[in-house]
Amino acid sequence: MWPGNKIPAPWANTTEPNKLIQFLETTLKERNKQGSFHVTQAILTPTVNTVAKGLVWGLRDYLVERNLPVIMSWVQTQRPGKGGVNIITSDFVELTDFANIVIKLNNVLLSESECKPR
């Protein structure tokens, strides 16, 4: 229905949650100027070094589990819809309450639309 250039999915390419969040904030602001769909990739990207350490400690444990709470806290504070997030992706969503967080964001949109006069 929409060409790929109308659904940008910028990739932070970082292992650090604070850099990821800074990147997500910046790209959301840029998206607001474009007025398009936007995929918010709340995903950390392992480096070769991270993968090597992950072989010893487990990549999921080493990279994801210790950083996921920070990322999910950021997701919970977002405003959905126009001017905010509209598509969010994350790894290992089964480790968190990701689905309910996204549903709550969608419910915000529903309640806003019900309050508007028709």
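the 2nd protein, sequnce then structure:
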Amino acid sequence: MASSQCLENPPTLSPTCGTGTVQEIAGLNTYVTGPSDSKLAILLVSDIFGYEAPLFRKLADKVAAAGFLVMAPDFFYGDPVDLSNPQFDRDAWRKIHTTDKGYEDAKPVIAALKSKGVSAIGAAGFCWGGRVAVKLASTDYIQAAVLLHPSRITVDDINEVKIPVAILGAEIDHITPAEQVKHFGEILSSKSEIDSLVKIFPGVSHGWTVKYKVEDESAVKSAEEAHEDMLNWFTKHVK
């Protein structure tokens, strides 16, 4: 979150975007989309711009169209990063909205899904959310995880992984450089009992999967390839 790459191409937030609805789940306003009676669910954990980002919700709807019940909570309690506010204090924001708190807040959402009869759950985390997803991957709360251009992931986090995990990284990433992602892949590949996938996308920057410029055909293509990889991972492991 410290890098300027996290702040590039910020979305214009829209509380009404997407085909789903906002519901209160475990005390959090949550974007919910997909078949409500599905036994398979995906938890999406956003980047620092939060759950009202149109491209993030568009991806949630895409995952839902594959048959999953998708929940994307507002882990920032109505306080996403707001670069239009001249008083915005990045360091103060980061102290309030820690990934450890996001992880704790995710647990009751997962419990709510299970109480609805959901039998298998996957989690995908973007940038900030990647750390939440990898922490969930060290538990038996979920069945699979995907980390997309994650930030602040450590070797210890990767060593703790217990479930199938995919890491989709950018070639141009100052936060989690490609070499670091490859190192994570080496650690995961040594865990023969756990399925893993590590992929570096050439020519793209941190945040590309949900902050691409829609008029940039190449950027859209790279984002859509990552989306398909994520969906394929969940189709394989959340069943």
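Residues 217-237 form the longest helix (21 residues). The mean pLDDT is 96.
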